[in-house]
Amino acid sequence: MLEKDGVLVRCIEENDLKQLYQWLNVQKYRGTFQSLQLNSMAGLRKRFESDGFLGANNWLMMVENNKALVGLFYVNIKYTGNDVKVASIGLVICQSNHRSKGIGKKATELIIDYIFGNYSIHRIEADTDIENLSAQNVLKRCGFSYEGTLRGYRYHSGKYVDHVIFSILKSEWKNKKENV
């Protein structure tokens, strides 16, 4: 469990499954830039019973704000060669009344601290729809650097859309934390 100023990033619990099912399968909770993932309740329960959504290389966690469930945080660990690992992260604030309140920044900072503090990962990256300026601003405020545009990167809402990719290196995060 990771906590900062009322924002909590935690493991999924069994009593979260109904909310998780709704967030993954109802478009209004996914926001403008996130596609539906269409999971069955049986599939979600099976994954929960298998690894609690905390697999060796991919995690799905709940985000709370002042004890209210507000969203999901994704982490994927990728190998890029010679046992070098990179983490790819993603956040969805599913409850629209909790968007644009600083929750995303706090949750992202918690995850960055956790990954760099506990894993031999030197790079964390995130991509988002080119039009998702809110997500881009969160990444920039967390110290991520823009790297480029991924043309036609994802299929969403009936068309291929461009994404932008950002990253932060462990040394950059350490400098940012030391200079705060």
TrEMBL record:
| Stretches assigned to the N-acetyltransferase domain | 7-171
Q: What is its EC number?
A: 2.-.-.-
| Database matches in InterPro entries | Acyl_CoA_acyltransferase, GNAT_dom, Ribosomal_N-acetyltransferase
Q: Which domain of life is it from?
A: Bacteria
- Mind listing the GO molecular function terms for this protein? protein N-terminal-serine acetyltransferase activity; protein-N-terminal-alanine acetyltransferase activity
Q: Which GO terms describe its cellular component?
A: cytoplasm
Q: Which UniProt keywords apply?
A: Transferase
Q: Known SUPFAM superfamilies for this protein? A: Acyl-CoA N-acyltransferases (Nat)
Name listed for the protein in its UniProt record: GNAT family protein
Q: What organism does this protein naturally occur in?
A: Proteinivorax hydrogeniformans
